[in-house]
Task: inverse folding
């Protein structure tokens, strides 16, 4: 028997591992190792960053990493540094952002200074040139893998596929600046979101939750009022019983007095 659409997200949420906390030292060290061991930088670091943040340390959920990539790519600067700052801020606010950013930057700073000094003496060496050619080819492969993994997670309908193809064509064949492509995609995404009614669907659960809360609150109020009424009724009954008992006792005393007079 097929499962309902509401049951599937609940099962996925239950199956997803719980997010872990991270200290500033852990953020610095993990991103330091990432910056030290990853060749190619920028987009080439995305697969390793996904593995580090989602699979190894469970700092970010798999579905949230796409938002991290989109925000980091849309902002000025290197995407790897932006992603490190993004995750660091999510974990430990400003201290985490500074720790992660310094961690991912420091290896590059040290290595570039050392390599620059080294290449001044052996830059024309054919072995060095061959090694650099291999490194650049490997970096191109890593970037291609990054594009594939992102597309597999994001391009799930015709609209996303059309935007991806249009963005590629505009940048590659018409030399349109990536900033304008991103801004145009934002506008088109908002229009598509409204026209397809997804905004209303997203708002419906919130309205339903609010209605449920109001219903529960009304029921609680009614139960409280009913309890108060019941308590008031019970108190009135007790008072009536006490009054009746007092009247019976007074009647009995009066009868006893009358009997005594008759005997005299």
Result:
């Amino acid at each position: 028997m097929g499962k309902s659409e509401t049951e599937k997200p609940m099962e996925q949420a239950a199956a997803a591992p719980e997010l872990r906390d991270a200290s500033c030292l852990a953020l610095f060290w993990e991103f330091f190792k990432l910056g030290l061991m990853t060749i190619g930088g920028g987009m080439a670091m995305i697969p390793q960053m996904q593995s580090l943040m989602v699979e190894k340390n469970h700092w970010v959920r798999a579905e949230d990493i796409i938002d991290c990539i989109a925000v980091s790519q849309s902002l000025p600067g290197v995407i790897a540094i932006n992603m490190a700052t993004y995750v660091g801020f999510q974990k430990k606010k400003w201290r985490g952002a500074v720790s992660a950013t310094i961690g991912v930057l420091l290896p590059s700073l040290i290595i570039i200074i050392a390599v620059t000094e080294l290449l001044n003496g052996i830059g024309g060496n054919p072995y060095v040139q061959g090694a650099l050619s291999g490194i650049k080819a490997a970096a191109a492969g890593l970037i291609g893998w990054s594009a594939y993994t992102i597309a597999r997670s994001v391009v799930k309908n015709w609209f996303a596929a059309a935007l991806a193809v249009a963005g590629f064509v505009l940048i590659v064949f018409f030399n349109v600046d990536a900033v304008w492509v991103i801004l145009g995609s934002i506008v088109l995404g908002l229009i598509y979101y409204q026209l397809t009614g997804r905004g209303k669907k997203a708002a419906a659960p919130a309205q339903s939750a609010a209605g449920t809360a109001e219903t529960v609150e009304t029921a609680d109020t009614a139960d409280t009022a009913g309890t108060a009424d019941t308590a008031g009724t019970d108190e009135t009954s007790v008072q009536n019983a006490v009054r009746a008992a007092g009247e019976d006792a007074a009647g009995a005393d009066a009868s006893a007095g009358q009997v005594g007079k008759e005997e005299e």
Summary: Confidence is low (pLDDT under 50) at residues 8-14, 259-264. The longest helix spans residues 198-263. The CA atoms of residues 127 and 257 lie 131 Å apart.
